[in-house]
Amino acid sequence: MTSLYTLFSVLLVLVVFPSSATGDLINQTCKNSSEGNRNIDQNFCVYALQAFPASRCANLTRLGLISITLVKNNVTDSRCLVKRFLEDKKPDKGTKAAMKDCLELYSDSAYALSDASKDFKAGRFSDANIKVSSVMDGSTTCDQGFDDLGVSSPLKNENGYIFQLSAITLSIIKMLNLSQES
Ligand SMILES: *[C@@H]1O[C@H](CO)[C@@H](O)[C@H](O)[C@H]1NC(C)=O
Ligand SMILES: *[C@@H]1O[C@H](CO)[C@@H](O)[C@H](O)[C@H]1NC(C)=O
Ligand SMILES: *[C@@H]1O[C@H](CO)[C@@H](O)[C@H](O)[C@H]1NC(C)=O
Ligand SMILES: *[C@@H]1O[C@H](CO)[C@@H](O)[C@H](O)[C@H]1NC(C)=O
Question: How many angstroms is it from 64 CA to the middle of ligand 3?
Fold first, then answer.
């Protein structure tokens, strides 16, 4: 009975406090990222990375790949959203043109992220940096198209996610690049 209780306690401790040293890496990384870049919200960063399967014990390299995947998922989803919009709705000429621009930007971004992932895995961090930066720029260019029409971007939320997740990715790339140089 006593030993069962002990076993239970040990299990409970393992479940409640899973290796905090590694679990802390997400927090640590997001803290550094948000301190280095005011566009990054620490809570969003923690929420996004923790939601990814098997991320809690991931090292920084793995977190970098996870963040690239997160941006890619958002880009793919946003692209699909725009495609559906263009098929289902009958937007005015201006909106249609802006949407088509965004569609193209998202397609380019999806390619850029596949390349960035390869660069990242090969340790070509500056190449990965350039590609992820282009994705980040793409999200603002998409919103800008609507701003130019004088309407608020219907893709503001989507672009906001892409922007944030790209910024998080860039900041992880920077951390890895610094540790590689030292
Ligand atoms: C990480 O930060 C979140 C809040 O952002 C907090 O709830 C959580 O306890 C922290 N985890 C660790 C392991 O420090
Ligand atoms: C975060 O920054 C601190 C101080 O600059 C540094 O000691 C730590 O290693 C950094 N963490 C990561 C994950 O890069
Ligand atoms: C990071 O984790 C991956 C597995 O997710 C592993 O292949 C790699 O060797 C680890 N890198 C370091 C520097 O420990
Ligand atoms: C974008 O990424 C965030 C964080 O990973 C997630 O919460 C959100 O559901 C994603 N949005 C889309 C449209 O994929």
Answer: 11
